[in-house]
Structures are given as C-alpha cells and as structure tokens.
Task: inverse folding
C-alpha cells in the first residue's frame, strides 16, 4: 500500500513489519518520533514485542544486547550524542556477533549544540564492527530495516541504517508499505543456532586470552568481508519479492560517463538533478552512490571508476586534520589498483547546512576547471 | 513541479495542514514531499511548512527558496514576516482574512495574485480549537483546493478524515465551506 510517511515513521513501520521482539530506545531529536510510534504500536497490541523503557542510549544498547543474546530480534534507534553514548556497547554488540538492527538519524555532533544533519556521528563509529548503510529516501529507509535483519541474521553482525536528519527524518514522502505476508516470506522468524537460556546459565564474552582473541577478530573481519556477497544475494532476493533494487553501490547515468560525482545519503538524489542538467549540455557525468560504508566496497568503487576522467567525492562529514571520510577511504581503495585519476574531495553541508543543486553545480565546475586537486579538502559554502 | 510554502503560528495546525495536503496528493497517485522548517516549534511563534508536488518521483532534497504559491494561515503574520520572500512572479498568495483580495493586493504588489478566505470565522463557526485560538488548518485546506488546483475536494476530504484526531465531520464541513467561500479564485 502506498502511504505518506516521514522517515522516522518509515523506520517504525520497517521495524514493525520485521516483527521485532524487543525494542529498547531512548528518545533524542530528531529520532524521537521513531520511539514514540513504536511505543504506541506495542501499547495497542499491534506488535508482539517488549518495549523496554531505559534511562539512556547506553542502556538501550545493553538491553538490545541482552535480548539478542537470548535469541530475540532486537531493535533500537538513536541519533548523534545518543549514538556516541552507546559507543562502548556498539563494540560489544558487534564482538558478540549479535544481529541487532539500529536506525541512526544522522545528526551533527555538539558543541555547538545542533539537531541538524551530517554524518560524523555514525562515521566516528566506523571501527566498531557494525555494518553501515547510508540511505537516500524514505522508501529505502523502510526497506533497509527489513533487509538489515535478513542480512544481520545471516552473517551474525549488527546493522546500522543511517538517514539524514530532517531531510528524511521529518520529511513526508510517498512510501510503498509492503504486505506483512510478503515480509514474513522474506524474513522468517529469528532462530539462531545458539542462544543464552536462563534455565541453563552460562557466561558469554568472558576473559579471552591472546591465544584465541585474534581469531575472533579474524572471524569478525571475515564475516564483514563475506557480508558483501550476502548483501548482493539478500538484495537480489528482496528485488524478486518487492521489485525494488538495492546493492552495495547505486549507479546513476554511469554507463558512458567520463566524470563521476561520488555521493552518499540524500545529496545523491539532489545530484541527479545536476547530472540531468549537465547531460542536457552534453557533459558525460554520472553518480556513484556509496550505499554501504562497512563493509567498504573498495573493489567495487575502483571498478566503477576505472577508465573515468575525474571523480568528485562529496562528503557531509570531516575527519579533522585529514579530509572528508568517504574521500579518504576511496582514495585508499584506488592506490593498489594503480589508479591515478584526479580525485577531488569536497566537504559540504555540515550541521545541516542546506545542499542545493547550485552548490553541486559549483562542485562539478570546480572539478572541471582544475587538473588535479591541490588540497585534501575543498570546502564548499564555508564562510572563511 | 509545484512548491508551496505555508506560514502560520505554532498551534494552528500549519504542519498538519501540509501533511494532510501531501496525503491527498499521494492518494491521488502523485509524488510529494511535505516538511516543516527544520528546527524547533513553539506555540504562538511563526511556523513555516513546505509542500513539493510533482507527477514523478522527486529527487530534489533541498529546502524551498522560490515557492510557486504562498498560504498564510494567520493574517497577523503579515505585519512581521515577509511572506512573499522568494515567491515566483505570478505566484498566488492565499491569505486567511476577512478582507477582500482587492484590499490586500496593494500590499503584495501586482506581480502576485491574491486570494482570501475567512478561515478564522469558519473555524469558530465549526468550533474548531478554542475561541481565542481557533484551528484554521482544515478550512485553509478547502481553500487551497480551490485556489491552487493541486488536488480535488474528494481527496482532501478523505485525507482530512484520516488525518484529524477529533471533530472529523466539523473539519470536513470547514473545508467545504472554505472551498465555496474563497474570494479572488476565479
């Protein structure tokens, strides 16, 4: 059924359709409505789940870890400072190989106090061992929650679904809400091989000597690497049932392109307008959207950029003293492929500063006018 | 693509109006975005909401700077807010006011088409909200249908029925009355 949904509610509906069994979440703007709607759905008896009220995000993730360890499908949602407070337990969930799915409304980090979007909250969780998706519209928000559980439960890793604050979280869009039967067919009940049982008490995650700790890390990494293949399979299965196509990357007008805008999140959609306009003028340009940040599709990005003249990486995030974060990772991915195409790194839209087609045209203009970048960051729209 | 900006005050249902309008567009098979001014809202303070409508999926994810039409839910805003900021030449301005459009045309200049509807009187008559702060959003929606031609009354009524928590019938009546009493819409 086609329905008008804001991004926050697309999350709630996605979690409901996934028949989550335990929800533990603490409200934070702009995520609050996710929790609000879920608590109503559970209170109305429309979802057979335990809604656990907690006193902080740290506790929310702790509750999800406990639930998931006993074999329950667990869900939480957060944003910015809330995600940062969870940091310790993000490692715990991932090392525990627990298939928790979490929505994170990408919001910039304080101070100065802010509620608007950028990606520094989730990107600074890069090395916690979570799978990370960055989505571009509310349909993809809902679909990726469902896809997230399928994937998480196959590879035994937690999944973080990231969406832009306000631009998606508070914006209503038409969303195709799938039938429950179809979701049930795609996502069977969670039935892990092993789980903790209160009737048979055991310790989990106890002292691990250096004799075996490294093997756990190796296995975690291998699972992450393997999840690339599983993402492709799972998305294929999803497309067969629901007719919507997703993957590690998304290409737009890339076939014969000479120039490429490399994007993530909602900027990818606005970029389409710019690409369409430039194509009218005969500029062969396309968009490569990085949908999956962990596992990082370095091989796939290198393949997509092979033979192109220039690429313009657009980051709504920053690693201070280095560059945009996607830029840095993409540059690293090209090195051992012997690829030396001019790769420009732009930082734009921090703290929710609006990104318009005019800004994106400016990015392409800059890239066209320069042979190679001379700086690690080309700042867009900053008042210097 | 049609872009609309709604101006109201916190508590009048401005954001809800944008949502109900968007709902009607979706029910009619169209594509839409509805969003508030990204930030915080307070009762009585100026509120802005946006609706972007198209017949194909909307890729544009930035804010609206040059709307095609403006809707003003509270006439007192005209004293403090430049509501026509960025409005495209030839754009329509729909104002909740008991005045005739001709009385307001001078204020807005000749490049915009002014229309009025006494949504406050309609809301009071239908007992929507309180006497001191009537909720005018459903009346405004009826006027929007007539004035801006972006959806029809059947769909707006359906969207109101699904979108308002209380006094459904009175809200529908308010929309109908506003539809027929719009001034300057010919």
Result:
């Amino acid at each position: 059924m086609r329905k008008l949904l804001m991004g926050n509610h697309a999350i709630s509906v996605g979690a409901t359709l996934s028949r989550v069994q335990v929800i533990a979440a603490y409200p934070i703007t702009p995520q609050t409505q996710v929790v609000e709607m879920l608590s109503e759905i559970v209170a109305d008896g429309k979802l057979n789940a335990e809604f656990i009220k907690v006193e902080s995000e740290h506790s929310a993730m702790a509750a999800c870890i406990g639930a998931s360890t006993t074999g329950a499908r667990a869900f939480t949602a957060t944003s910015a400072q809330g995600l940062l407070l969870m940091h310790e337990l993000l490692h715990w969930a991932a090392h525990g190989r627990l298939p928790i799915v979490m929505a994170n409304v990408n919001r910039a980090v304080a101070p100065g106090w802010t509620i608007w979007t950028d990606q520094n909250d989730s990107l600074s969780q890069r090395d916690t061992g979570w799978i990370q998706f960055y989505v571009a519209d509310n349909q993809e928000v809902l679909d990726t929650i469902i896809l997230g559980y399928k994937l998480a439960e196959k590879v035994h890793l937690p999944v973080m679904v990231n969406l832009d604050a306000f631009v998606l979280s508070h914006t209503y869009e038409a969303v195709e809400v799938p039938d429950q039967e179809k979701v049930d067919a795609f996502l069977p009940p969670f039935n892990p091989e092993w789980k903790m049982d209160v009737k048979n008490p055991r310790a989990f995650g106890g002292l691990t000597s250096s004799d075996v700790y490294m093997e756990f890390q190796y296995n975690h990494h291998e699972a992450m690497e393997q999840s690339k293949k599983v993402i492709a399979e799972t998305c294929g299965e999803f497309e067969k049932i629901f007719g919507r196509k997703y993957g590690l990357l998304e290409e737009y007008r890339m076939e014969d392109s000479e120039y490429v805008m490399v994007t993530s999140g909602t900027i990818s959609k606005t970029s389409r307008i710019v690409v369409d306009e430039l194509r009218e003028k005969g500029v062969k340009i396309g968009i490569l959207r990085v949908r999956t940040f962990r596992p990082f599709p370095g091989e796939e990005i290198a393949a997509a950029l092979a033979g192109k003249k220039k690429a313009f990486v657009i980051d709504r995030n920053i690693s201070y003293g280095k560059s945009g974060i996607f830029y840095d990772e993409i540059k690293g991915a090209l090195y051992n492929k012997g690829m030396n195409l001019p790769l420009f790194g732009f930082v734009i839209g921090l703290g929710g500063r609006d990104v318009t087609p005019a800004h994106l045209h400016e990015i392409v203009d800059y890239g066209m006018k320069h042979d190679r970048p001379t700086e690690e960051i080309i700042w867009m729209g900053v008042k210097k | 693509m049609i872009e609309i900006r709604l101006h109201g005050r916190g508590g009048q249902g401005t954001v809800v109006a944008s949502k109900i309008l968007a709902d009607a567009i979706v029910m009619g098979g169209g594509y839409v975005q509805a969003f508030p001014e990204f930030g915080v809202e307070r009762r009585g303070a100026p509120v802005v909401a946006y609706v972007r409508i198209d017949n194909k999926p909307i890729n544009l994810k930035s804010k609206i700077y040059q709307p095609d039409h403006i809707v003003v839910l509270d006439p007192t805003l005209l004293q403090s807010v430049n509501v026509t900021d960025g409005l495209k030449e030839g754009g329509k301005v729909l104002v909740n006011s008991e005045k005739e459009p001709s009385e307001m045309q001078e204020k807005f200049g000749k490049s915009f088409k002014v229309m009025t509807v006494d949504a406050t009187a309609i809301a009071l008559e239908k007992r929507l909200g309180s006497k001191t702060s009537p909720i005018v959003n459903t009346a405004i929606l009826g006027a929007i249908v007539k004035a801006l031609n972006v959806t029809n009354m059947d769909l707006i009524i359906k969207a109101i029925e699904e979108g308002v928590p209380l006094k459904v019938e009175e809200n529908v009546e308010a929309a109908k009355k506003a539809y027929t009493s719009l001034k300057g819409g010919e």
Observations:
- Chain B has one domain: 2-181.
- The mean pLDDT of chain B is 95.
- Chain B touches chain A through 22 residues (CB under 8 Å).
- Residues 98 and 151 of chain B are 24 Å apart (CA to CA).
